[in-house]
Design goal:
With 118 residues, this protein is an alpha+beta fold. It has a two-stranded antiparallel ribbon. The protein starts with a helix and ends in an 8-residue tail after the last strand.
């Protein structure tokens, strides 16, 4: 199984590709915060987690703006089409120096039943 960080970047690719130049770290963190929230909401709504209220709350929040609703719709479609058999939630994440003058996205995941998860 591939790393959760790679999976999240693939999942969020349509939003990440909207940047026409490398974004600031703050902008990237904002975008990843949204992507991860949508990912986790979908995963939590699955049978193994059994918490659909997270997805319902995310949808309500996103419907407050047309852009939020469109981004949610796009990512929801992607999740159902390509990722619906991945039941990992993102536990912690950050953007860290890669040692080459750039940065990289790192995160770790939790599985259903992992102690300390929602």
């Amino acid at each position: 199984m591939r790393k959760i960080s790679e999976t999240i970047l693939d999942f969020g690719r349509p939003l990440l590709d909207l940047y026409d130049q490398p974004p600031t770290i703050a902008a990237m963190k904002n975008t990843l915060t949204f992507i991860i929230a949508v990912w986790d909401a979908h995963v939590m709504a699955t049978k193994p987690w059994g918490k659909p209220q997270y997805l319902e709350a995310m949808r309500k929040q996103c419907c407050e703006s047309l852009i939020g609703a469109r981004m949610m719709e796009l990512l929801s479609h992607r999740w159902h089409e390509f990722f619906s058999n991945d039941f990992r939630v993102v536990a912690t994440w950050d953007i860290v120096p890669d040692g080459k003058g750039g940065h990289q996205f790192q995160c770790d995941a939790r599985w259903p039943g992992t102690p300390g998860t929602a």
